[in-house]
Amino acid sequence: QVQVAESGGGSVQAGGSLSLSCVLSGFTYSSACVAWFRQTPQQEREGVAAIYTGSGRSYYADTAEGRFTIAQDVDKNTVFLQMNNLKPEDTAMYYCAAAIGLGPYDYCSGSPRVDFGYWGQGTQVTVSS
């Protein structure tokens, strides 16, 4: 059974930091595109960052680059999203998603072009001013 589980959300003041974790299981970890998305009731889902697990190559949305870092612990099948200099507009439910069975030349980003078939339950991030 493929499982995707996020954690690490919480409340923080503007300028603060949070680190989110996504633990993945039930498939070959090294052949996946794993991405972080965020969503609010007012806005549609937005891709934040993504990583191809086989090589560690990463992609960032314009709003995230320079503040957020996506990384992985291969031995623990875990993907992290380190979020620094948080802003109130970063407030959202953050989801981890996985597209599995990919090769090193397949496209990987936080885009609807990628076939993300597996999603976590979400973890809430709230940034106050």
What does this structure look like?
With 129 residues, the chain is mainly β. Helix content is 0%, strand content 50%. Strands 2, 4, 5, 6, 9, 10 and 11 form a 7-stranded mixed β-sheet that branches. Strands 1-3-8-7 form a 4-stranded antiparallel β-sheet, with no helix packed on it.
The amount of helix comes to under 10%
Number of strands: 11
How much of the sequence lies in strands comes to: over 45%
Order of helices and strands: EEEEEEEEEEE
Number of helices: 0
How far is the first residue's CA from the last residue's CA? 41 Å
Could you name the ranges where pLDDT drops below 50 across 5 or more consecutive residues?
none
Q: What's the story with the biggest beta sheet?
A: 7 strands, mixed
Structural class of the secondary structure composition? mainly beta
The shape, in one word, is globular
C-alpha Rg, in Å?
14 Å
What number is the mean pLDDT? 96
What's the short version?
The chain is mainly beta and 129 residues long.
Q: How are the elements arranged and paired?
A:
Layout: E1 3-7, E2 10-13, E3 18-25, E4 32-39, E5 46-52, E6 58-60, E7 68-73, E8 78-83, E9 92-100, E10 118-119, E11 123-128
Parallel strand pairs: 2-11
Antiparallel strand pairs: 1-3, 3-8, 4-5, 4-9, 5-6, 7-8, 9-10, 9-11
Keywords, please?
single chain, 129 residues, mainly beta, 7-stranded mixed sheet, 4-stranded antiparallel sheet, 11 strands
